[in-house]
Amino acid sequence: MSADLEIPAYLEHALAGLRDASEVGPTLNGLLSAVRGLLSAESAYILRRQGNALALMAADPPSDTTVAPAAIADGGSEARAVTTGLTVIDRAARSPFVPRPELALVATPIIVRGETLGVLAATRPSLFVPSEVRWLRILAQVGGIALENARLLEAERRRARYGETVGALATIERVDVGPFCQRMAAVINDVMNADLTDVMLSRSSVPAATGRGATPAGDRSELIRLGEARREDVSIATGLESIDVMRGGAFAASYLTSAPYRCADARENPKAPAALRNVGIRSILAVPIPGDDLAQGLLIVASRQPSAFDADDAAFLRLIAERVGLLLRHAEVERERARTSARQEFLTVVSHELKTPVAVIKAYTEVLERRGEVARWADRDRQIVDRIQDQADRMLAMIEQLLDLQRLEAGRLTLDLSRFELGDLVRRSIEAIQATTTRHTFVTHVDEGVSVRADRRRMEEVLTNLLDNAVKYAPGGGSIAVELRRENSDSILLSVADQGIGIASEDIERVFDRFYQVGAGTFSRGHVGLGLGLYIVHEIIERHGGRVWVESSPGHGSTFFARLPVEAGVIDEVTDAA
Q1: Which is more confidently placed, 530 or 546?
Q2: Which of the listed CATH numbers 3.40.1190.20, 3.30.1330.60, 3.20.20.70, 3.30.450.40 matches domain 3-158?
Q3: What is the largest distance, in Å, between two alpha-carbon atoms of the chain?
Q4: What's residue 529's pLDDT?
Q5: Which of 117-131, 212-226, 434-448, 555-569 has the lowest mean pLDDT?
Q6: Fold of 173-330
Q7: Is the model's pLDDT at 48 over the cut of 50?
Q8: Distances (CA, A) of 293 to 177, 315, 319
Q9: Architecture of domain 414-577 in CATH?
């Protein structure tokens, strides 16, 4: 066959594969076969550009496509073609892709719309001449169309996979955090064709049930790996079992700033995480898992190929991270609900179980008290009975506080509003507390005619807790000033001031927290409580539409203030619960 007839036949063979854009393999095989035929080449091959490296994509005769990519900066005939944009002819091949350096080599860049996608190259024993090069350039243009089609097709398939993954994740409502993170690592690694994927969570976001989330709430100084996936031939990245955020680094910065981190080639970036670079990782993409304020963790994917992740990959991983973050927050809400329910059930059972025996003890002390009066017991014996009765009363009060806590947490603390004189209630409450102490005296200033619409029993509870707190935190005795005054036609102000140990500034914001006690151990054992009194005061006043606060300094006593509307309004939560 003459050369004039052979050339169209080879070109037809090379172009045939373009008719089916769904498969790039046949197109490249036809192209390489045409190169060998037209140039009488011993071999022909195509290299795809991956960032700053060239990777073998196809060869004729078939070659080992697992050959490691070669950095463009390392030089070589193909690298020169990429950097110069010109065809390179070498008498002796200088290429990591050609095992026989004695062969001559020709390489021409594959350029599409000004972007170099790769290199088309051929080898043979004799030197290539310029007249043959024009056919290689023509075939390189065909190769550019094939590579662009392959890239577009892969991008479309990838977007379809990403869409299916995001859609499937959107159907999940509840998760068991440990297994879920492990499953997500496997799915992400497969869908993104990555070599390694890690799901890292802050310890404060890890359930205690995993045995790895036992640090105090709010401590987010460490990320731990809760899910991992890697290809079988990828070494384990030691040093990524946990990340100390305080030590800095790329991952720590991404987590703290909630900004994605992307590295195109860890080999050329000395600041890239060494744990991944040391196991041959080139490309790294890390996306924070959103939280309410700070991120809950990181999704990390990595590849041994340079520039393996683009903007589409980053967008997909952000969508996954957002959904994962939402599911983790839902899981925490579910755990908190379960804890609250278990705590409420425990408090209810314990409180009711304790109330009956304490009531029996109190009843028997009343019997003993009457017998003592008839038998004219000695004062010391009567004091013993009185002390038992006092402690029984205190125990009943503590049990009632536990029940109130249960009602508050369940939203079932209802208010029975009525109109009454608050001043009278203040005086009676002071008389009751004064009967329990001889070391304290009460100085009272009460405006006359202070009538309010409120829950009488709950306001008596507020007064008792505030007065008892003043006695408790003034163990040395002294005067306690109680003032009730009308501020205006709409509100009244109650204050209770003691001369006790005072409160440090760092404790003032916490005095109304559940179970919190300032200076525990500095007061007498007779006044040890549960740390619920001020919390209940705060909740009752708030539910009346009022406000409570404290002013204090160490060693100078404390003054508690409660501002209450004359016409109490019940907040929505209580109204709904009622």
Answers
A1: 546
A2: 3.30.450.40
A3: 140
A4: 61
A5: 212-226
A6: Beta-Lactamase (3.30.450)
A7: yes
A8: 20, 21, 18
A9: 2-Layer Sandwich (3.30)
